[in-house]
Structure to design on (344 residues):
């Protein structure tokens, strides 16, 4: 296998993101993940819609297309069906993907199209200068909600899994290691993959994720899930998760006789999505995690990764099946296959 480096996937265009924007880190993670996957740039395509994150095709030394608002997934779907041999990435933001592009998003999940969707979630419209987005927490003051938004937000994980999604992962923009791991897992998954990147917009929503990303609290407010490993977290690695009836409960190791053996062990391969949804929604309330009342951490890493027939694979199989039943092999043969007559 050819060995690639990050430089092989960098274009000659300078990144035009604001200084300190989380998108810089996500771009680096994508380039490094592509290199580690070992898939040639000529076999890779990056498709985007509109938004700060959607500039990404310019910065990747791959094939790419910068499409229109909310329609990146439609273009990516067509490309994957026409060229199933390509590895197709869709780069999108919380507004591009979940507002105008929401219909394409849920149907990409339902159809299980083999796309790798990197969803930049900064809970704000950045490119259009600071309006609230579908993921903004209730009460957020923005240019389009000067007294606070009165809407409840989407949780991307809830939308993905509710639409029968087969893969969902979450990472923090500056956490390059876990971001790369999630992105590589997404590409290796056969079907629709969503990696939600918690991104910081330094201009219009600085610190929007600080309740979970602030270095002072991050270890106690987040948990990185890994298959086959106990759900343990905390600055001192002394906290864990157990099942309390139907609910997930945070516990402290050593208290009430709790040991590591009592903790839940992560399994992203469970077909039933119920428990994955519970994990993905930890720390959230109907108002967003700014209104969360429980003491559970936000789940990072690969939360759900189950097998299923992909749309593009099914279409390709159907075409081959129909070809086997039809005698016509060319357009001319097809046109002459029925009744014909000559007009003189």
């Amino acid at each position: 296998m050819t060995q690639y480096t990050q430089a092989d996937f960098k274009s000659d265009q300078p990144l035009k993101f604001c200084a300190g924007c989380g998108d810089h880190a996500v771009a680096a993670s994508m380039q490094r993940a592509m290199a580690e996957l070992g898939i040639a740039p000529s076999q890779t395509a990056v498709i985007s819609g509109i938004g700060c994150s959607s500039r990404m095709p310019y910065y990747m030394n791959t094939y790419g297309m910068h499409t229109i608002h909310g329609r990146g997934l439609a273009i990516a779907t067509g490309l994957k069906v026409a060229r199933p041999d390509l590895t197709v990435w869709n780069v999108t933001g919380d507004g591009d993907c979940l507002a105008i592009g929401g219909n394409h998003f849920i149907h990409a999940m339902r159809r299980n199209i083999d796309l790798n969707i990197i969803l930049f979630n900064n809970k704000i419209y950045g490119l259009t200068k600071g309006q609230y987005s579908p993921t903004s927490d209730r009460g957020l003051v923005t240019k389009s909600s000067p007294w606070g938004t009165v809407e409840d937000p989407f949780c991307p994980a809830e939308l993905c899994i509710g639409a029968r999604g087969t893969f969902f992962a979450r990472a923090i923009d500056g956490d390059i290691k876990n971001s790369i791991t999630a992105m590589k897992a997404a590409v290796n998954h056969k079907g629709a993959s969503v990696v939600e990147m918690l991104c910081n917009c330094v201009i219009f929503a600085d610190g929007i994720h600080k309740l979970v990303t602030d270095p002072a609290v991050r270890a106690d407010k987040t948990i990185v899930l890994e298959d086959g490993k106990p759900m343990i977290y905390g600055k001192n690695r002394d906290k864990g998760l157990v099942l309390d009836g139907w609910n997930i409960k945070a516990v402290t190791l050593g208290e009430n006789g709790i040991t590591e053996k009592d903790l839940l062990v992560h399994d992203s391969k469970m077909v039933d999505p119920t428990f994955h949804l519970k994990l993905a929604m930890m720390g959230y309330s109907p108002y967003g995690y700014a209104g969360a009342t429980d003491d559970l951490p936000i789940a990072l890493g690969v939360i759900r990764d189950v097998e299923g027939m992909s749309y593009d694979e099914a279409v390709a199989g159907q075409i081959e099946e129909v070809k086997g039943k039809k005698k016509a092999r060319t357009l001319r043969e097809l046109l002459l296959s029925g009744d014909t007559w000559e007009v003189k």
User: Anything to note?
Assistant: The mean pLDDT is 94. The chain has twelve helices and eleven strands.
